[in-house]
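Hi team,

Filling in the usual template for the complex we talked about on Friday. All components are listed, including any nucleic acid strands or ligand strings, so the model treats them as one assembly.

SUBMITTER: L.P.
PURPOSE: interface mapping
COMPONENTS: two
RESIDUES: 741
SEQUENCES:
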Amino acid sequence: MTIMSGAEILIECWKKEGVKVIFGYPGATTIDIHHHLAVSGLRFVLCRHEQAAVHAADGYARSTGRPGVVLVTSGPGATNTITGLAGAHMDSVPVLVFSGQVSRLSIGNDAFQEVDIVGVSRPVTKHNYLVLSTEELAQTVKEAFYVATSGRPGAVLVDLPKDVMSGKAQFSYPKKVELKAYQPHLVPHPRQVQKVADLLAKAKKPIIYSGGGVISSGAGEELLKLAELLNIPVTTTLMGLGGFPGTHRLALGMLGMHGLYRANMAIQSADLILAVGARFDDRVTGALDGFAPKAAIIHIDVDTTSIHKIVDVDVPLVADARQALVAVLGALGPIPPYDKDERQKWLDRIKEWDAESPMTYDRSPGEDIKPQMVIESIYRLTKGKAIIVTEVGQHQMWAAQYYLCDSPRQFVTSGGLGVMGFGLPAALGVLVDRPGATVIDISGDGSFLMNVQELATAVQENLPVKVAILNNGCLGMVRQWQELFYQGRYAATILEAGPDYVKLAEAFGAKGFQATKRPEVDEVIKKGLAEPGPVLMDFVVNRDELVYPMVPGGRALNDMILEKTHLP
Amino acid sequence: METPSDSHKRHTLALLVDNRPGVLARVATLVSGRGYNIDSLSVAETMDPAISLITLIVSGSPRIVNQIVKQLRKLINVIKVTDLSDVDYVERQLVIVRVKAVSENRDEIARLCDIFRGKIVDVSSKAYTLEITGGEAKIKAALSLLAEFGIEEQVSTGLTAIARSSSVKKLTL
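RESULT (copied from the run log):
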């Protein structure tokens, strides 16, 4: 037992939790913490906006599987974290924001830079805390890490009044957390496991629908085993990409609004869906009354609230995805019997769908750069090994469709909340832990400007992010809806005054390259990858290119627009 | 998916929660954040001062109420949620009501108060103030009869509820 200040206790707690790096931005109420942090041996990454700091911590957490930690000041510093918290929380990413707060006696007095951040952040966090004494700080921090990382992971905020940080208390780090009311249900129920195994063995046209939970629980290997054991095709959500190898013979690719034809058709025709760590998001299911009409549904999820929320399921299995799959594999045994002829017919049918409408675009010769080509070139030149981070919009969907990720945590994207401006800071978060990796932020010219200031962070911290902007001079996804469903009235979606991206990169001390014609694409990518530092690659692409296939809102998954000519 | 205007069944939810600042706000935010209204609410400490009981009345289809119950169970400070509507239970509410009482009907009001096992807690030359406890139906009946004499003011607590001992076994969740 030693007497320490709140600031010192906080840093000790971080060390005990294995924290190596903190992202954030300082201010009046966190000076005490920074004063000690500077000599603590922990790395502080000074981002240029608090929102970006949370995205960076989020990217770090998605890439490593360890919690991302953020330190910001009170008032605007704290409110700026809300989008980041909401995004991390919706995608079940363990992120902890530690926010400064005015001294306890000033709380509620409209003090300078005071805001009730616990109140503001309540709906976008898994839980949050206001620490009211230095004595309870260590216990609270321990609890916060436990809540953020256990069960279905999520975002947690801890609010730290300035005088609690400067006050002193005896420090001893609690060994464990006991929460009466919070006990994540991780172990699968054997009876449910047996039901799952029986259904899987009997199914003629089964499909696995795999989500982000497979990645966060580390169930990739078990999923691969199960799919190969019973020869079951696998479709993944946007969040689940990489959870099953994208180039595997059983991989169908992404499903949903911009999912592959074969994946959506397979879901609609399947007699059994095994959903693992996925939550039947509206972008996945399309119109609910037309979703998978012939299928029995098994739903494996660690969060009971996900089950029966959107669709009625036949066999729910509340458990950690990995533990559940281990148990199912155990129940199936090493050589489970299943109808191999039926399975071959099913896989052949899926191949026919793929031949009917493969993932492609108009590749006819020409000068103009098609955005899909850029993704394909990046894929080829990085041999499919880069870590892909994205912003939100058309480029995000093309990246999901054309960059086939084989490993979990290789594809980092803002799925649930869809945050434009997520990619650049998230890519920096990935690079903090993996300085040698090739990390590419696939961006659009709209999203990129939303957190462009982070180029300064990249340069200062020496984080060699490669940003590929698919520059179409518009907000492409909204424009796509306007073209298809709003009579081509392009309201507020044309970005006429974009910056000169090469000069912009140089102004920040990074390198910039531009490609305006097809033959320049490979050249620019090669130059960008060869640079040791941060790089901005500006690909001026064809504005008319749309993301296909597309399931229009309110239609069933098999009701896809496949290409422009099919339009009424 | 149902919308808030769909089928309404009334559910009485009993929540055991940590007795701490902000817990009621979490519960209220969770319900309101999904577009549902809390019809009635009462909060008080239990025998264990570290734990409070929140009695919450919400209306909705089974799917919606199930989802609310599951989401409430997910809150870190919520220890136990019981949907009392699934079992036999006793619910009570306290109403205090000031009724116009002139000489020709004072006796009748007092009798009525007796019938509903209420109490007259304040008397003036022009009014009686009555205290009545009961379940929702009884309170409704009493108030509609008293309304004939003219209600000047009326205040009420939220409903609170407890399972009958015959049902307690069923509640192990």
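MY TAKE: The first strand of chain B starts at residue 9 and ends at 18. The longest helix of chain B spans residues 62-74.

Thanks, L.
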